[in-house]
Prior knowledge:
homodimer; mainly alpha; disordered N terminus; DNA-binding; Transcriptional regulator, PadR family (chains A, B); Tscrpt_reg_PadR_N (chains A, B); WH-like_DNA-bd_sf (chains A, B)
Amino acid sequence: MKREVKNCIFAEIEMNSLAYALLAMVARKDCSGYELVQLLELFWQAKHSQVYPLLAKLEQKQYVAHRLVKQNGRPDKKIYRLTEQGREILSAWIHEEPAVPVVRDEFLTKIYAIWLTSTKRARELLHERIQYFTDMLTDRLLKIREMEERWSDDLYDPHSPQFGRYMILQRKTRLEQEEINWCHWVLERLKKD
Amino acid sequence: MKREVKNCIFAEIEMNSLAYALLAMVARKDCSGYELVQLLELFWQAKHSQVYPLLAKLEQKQYVAHRLVKQNGRPDKKIYRLTEQGREILSAWIHEEPAVPVVRDEFLTKIYAIWLTSTKRARELLHERIQYFTDMLTDRLLKIREMEERWSDDLYDPHSPQFGRYMILQRKTRLEQEEINWCHWVLERLKKD
DNA sequence: TTTTCATATATAAATATTGACATATTAAAC
DNA sequence: GTTTAATATGTCAATATTTATATATGAAAA
């Protein structure tokens, strides 16, 4: 009962979380690898060095296909689209239980041990954090506005390809706002010092 | 200008983010490896298979030291404490700029592509997510209450070893509450369907 | 005019992380 | 009575991820 029987003996791909994330992205909209890295940032950070080879494997498996797009001033790009087979395994995967989310945040380690140093450094860290999340939030709100202008009512239609991304953008802005609120709350606590 | 000169030629440890996280944890309170895995969950998930060998390396570097504690009904444990050298490099590290946070969340990939399947599955995913974060939140609030009963005023003193953990617990409850709020907001949007 | 930045793709080596295997004790559930 | 769960530590192989290197284009900045 140990051996999983795979459907092909050569070039077997481990369909991992990132692989499905890439399929989910190209399902909404045809994308280049370069663009995928940026879109992914919303909930699954990955470097291009991980994305490009994985896209090649997904194409080999025929879950995606690409066309070459020549550009005027820039290097050509490969625009990937989801194939019917890709759509099928992605749909099936959605019905499996999602893995627990993973978060790794160095800033919090530093706050954890901040008592060892100074409240000055604490304030510094918090102000930088506020700046970081404020920038993120600004960008996020811009993207929300862009989507609203382009798709309006579709964004609230669960059958629209845009629905998921819009909901997730909304979620991210809420969380980022809450991160900022918390920073201010901590800064208040540091004032007394 | 390529080669970084290291201070020792043998048994060199790559002091990575997890290593500092472990130091930060034992700085607050002496801990076993088993306990560290659990405490770490708050902002840096790691398996014991990563933690135990790393603790051994940190001890070899003399950043931590352990004592054996015999237990009545359970296996003996190694309780680690931070050494003076450990405290020094941890303090120094706090003054470096933190790496950007990393989040990887399969649930969001599924929501991203939910338009491919059914709103029934969407509701299912959201209800499970609410359950997950409600459980997390309950546990988190319990831990907050435990800390408040045990340390009361210390928790608002930035020089207390407990300060950081308390602030970070507060942050996590805020974010988890916001995750739940967002789920309900999305569920409202799915009702019309 | 030289550097830097954003766009674009790609690979190899190093490092980080997970999953599987291993062992041991006790209490509680079945 | 046997299994399951929680406590506790550890190793090794497999997988995932990052860092470094490479190349190419054009615009903008220094």
